[in-house]
Specification:
single chain; alpha+beta; D-amino Acid Aminotransferase, Chain A, domain 1; D-amino Acid Aminotransferase, Chain A, domain 2; 2 domains; 5-stranded mixed β-sheet; 6 helices; about 30% strand; globular
Length: about 280
């Protein structure tokens, strides 16, 4: 089932113009949201990130785009699903309306919401092998646009193909200063002793929802010290743990980078705290 501008369609009956600007120019922003028991998780953070992204791209924010309105649109779509899963993955995409070439005829927007089922409402950590590598073919320019979730994800797509072709589970992206900024599908954290380090937004990493939640958890915990600073590739060999975060998987521990093997003690401890926050909403 798909929600297009408030109307719910079956997948086979949903249609978008081939001139859709999200398709033609990547002129779109999106949020990937975990929905538990028909309630969007960390919804306030998602909503404000979406609004900020639209403002940065100079999209006109409709008057009815309130948190309550968009949440209801998500809930109506999830409720329309034939199978009633306890947890769902929802993607809310906002795109500028059709018209114009690089210069749009209007800054007015439309939206589309899609949904798919998830297996669990809580985040779970797997002990499976998870190997990463650096993706160095293309570098990310650190600027405000690189922190947004837009349809311009060519680097992530090519990097994911590279990872698949070389039997890696994920790759880490570098910015033009050769600093590590994030993984292909989430933010990255390095653990060394009691210190947990993650790249700053100024380096060009995604302003991730789980990144934000974990920073809050780590900052409040007396057991850890948070460091937001540029991460050199050389630091990967010195770390005790590396983990990747995103809103669907929560925390994914890395087990291997080249000849270095990592533990996941801190990852599992943080996941427990993240799940408590998840339950509390």
């Amino acid at each position: 089932m798909i929600n297009i501008n408030g109307t719910i369609f079956e997948d086979s009956k949903a249609k978008l113009s081939i001139n859709n600007r999200g398709f033609a120019y990547g002129d779109a922003v999106f949020e990937t949201i975990k929905v538990n028991n028909n309630k969007p998780v960390f919804w306030e953070a998602h909503y404000f990130r979406l609004m900020a992204s639209m403002r940065i791209l100079r999209m006109e924010i409709p008057m009815n785009f309130t948190p309550e309105f968009l949440e209801t649109q998500i809930q109506d779509l999830v409720s329309s699903m034939p199978s009633k899963s306890i947890s769902n993955r929802v993607k809310l995409t906002v795109f500028r309306n059709t018209g114009g070439y690089y210069t749009p005829n209007s800054n007015d927007v439309s939206y589309i919401i899609t949904v798919s089922e998830l297996e669990s409402d809580l985040y779970q950590i797997s002990d499976d092998h998870y190997e990463i590598e650096l993706f160095k073919d293309y570098l990310v320019s650190p600027n405000l646009l690189s922190t947004l979730k837009t349809n311009n994800k060519a680097v992530n797509v090519v990097g994911s193909i590279f990872a698949k072709e070389n039997n890696y589970h994920n790759c880490l992206l570098l910015n033009t200063n050769k600093s590590i900024i994030e993984a292909l599908n989430g933010n990255v954290f390095l653990v060394q002793g009691n210190s947990i380090k993650t790249p700053p937004l100024a380096d060009g990493c995604l302003k991730g929802i789980i990144r934000e939640q974990l920073i809050e958890i780590i900052t409040k915990s007396p057991d850890y010290d948070l460091i937001e600073a540029s991460v050199s590739p050389f630091e990967l060999q010195k770390a005790d743990e590396i983990f990747i975060t995103n809103v669907i998987q929560g925390i994914v521990p890395v087990t291997k980078f080249r000849k270095k093997v990592y533990t996941s003690v801190t990852s599992k401890a943080l996941l427990k705290m993240l799940n408590i926050k998840l339950r509390l909403g």
